[in-house]
Amino acid sequence: MAPKTRRTTVLAPSDTGPTPSPALLRRLLRAKDHVDAASHEAWPVKRLAALSGTSEAHFARAFKQAFGLPPHRYLLTRRIEQANTLLRDTDFSITEIAFATGWESVGTFGRIFRDINGRSPGEFRRHARQIPAPLAAMPACVLKAAQRPDLNIAVLEKRRRMANGTVRPSTREGT
Amino acid sequence: MNQGIGVAGLYVDDQDEALAFYVDKLGFRVHTDVRNGPYRWLTVQHPDQPSFQLGLFAPGTPIHDDATAQTLRAMVAKGAMPPLVLYVDDCKASYARLKARGVEFTQEPVDRYGSVDAGFRDPAGNGWKMIQPAADTK
């Protein structure tokens, strides 16, 4: 008898099912666009699935297959990107930036931020302001996106494993 | 002017849908719409920029094999194609006009130290930034 496949098994690319239709991908993109436009808001899977016209069960899986990251981790990249921008370009306090980018706790924000950027928010701000005026020929909106963290490095996963699963997820995702 | 880039193209999922969007909603004009068998060469142009044509091309035979066409259509639908930029004189006014016509905006106008930009997508998923340059860079 073949071993039963567990749901948590990492799937090889060939096992991820048929390529989604362009129509479904376009609807998933619509949900992603909403996250992009308001990453400070809470994005439970139920809300995203409704925007895509998919079932909740289908959404997270289809999103990850399409965009390479589960929706909650994608949301994290956008929040950190926004926090980076606010730290660099404004004088808002770190507390204000934590709440403005969607965290409910400054402590969680600081911890996750350091995990991803390798610096605390305060250190990031000091460092960013020493760098000369950046890349003015690139549209500001594109430059911002280009400086988004790449969470495929799985730094959070590494830390979660090191912490033996005691670290709470940073976002309220209904996964 | 007779030098410079003449045509650059986009991939779209459905050329009729794209044509309706770029002409009826954005206000482009059809420049060329010709067919050779299953292949349709379709370009539009901005009324203020007659020297440039924007091609609206559908992946598929005979240019692409089926697997390649499917990949290209998926990339467009996932918003993975390169950014496109449309310059306007008044971003907020253009936003209001296009939104009323049903254009799917991904970003409302944002003021960035003088320049104003908004974001929208065409029906296929191609992402546009609509930028009103700062007055001192015009």
Automatic annotation (TrEMBL), chain A:
Pfam families: HTH_18
Domain of life: Bacteria
Entry coiled-coil feature ranges: none
GO molecular function terms attached to this record: DNA-binding transcription factor activity; sequence-specific DNA binding
Ranges where the HTH araC/xylS-type domain occurs: 29-127
InterPro entries: AraC_XylS_family_regulators, Homeodomain-like_sf, HTH_AraC
Stretches for region Disordered: 1-22
Keywords in alphabetical order: DNA-binding, Transcription, Transcription regulation
Full protein name: AraC family transcriptional regulator
Organism per entry: Pandoraea faecigallinarum
UniProtKB/TrEMBL annotation, chain B:
Record-annotated VOC domain positions: 4-133
Domain of life: Bacteria
PROSITE patterns: VOC
Coiled-coil boundaries: none
Record-linked InterPro entries: Glyas_Bleomycin-R_OHBP_Dase, Glyas_Fos-R_dOase_dom, VOC_core
Pfam families: Glyoxalase (PF00903)
Database matches in SUPFAM superfamilies: Glyoxalase/Bleomycin resistance protein/Dihydroxybiphenyl dioxygenase
Stated name of the protein: Glyoxalase
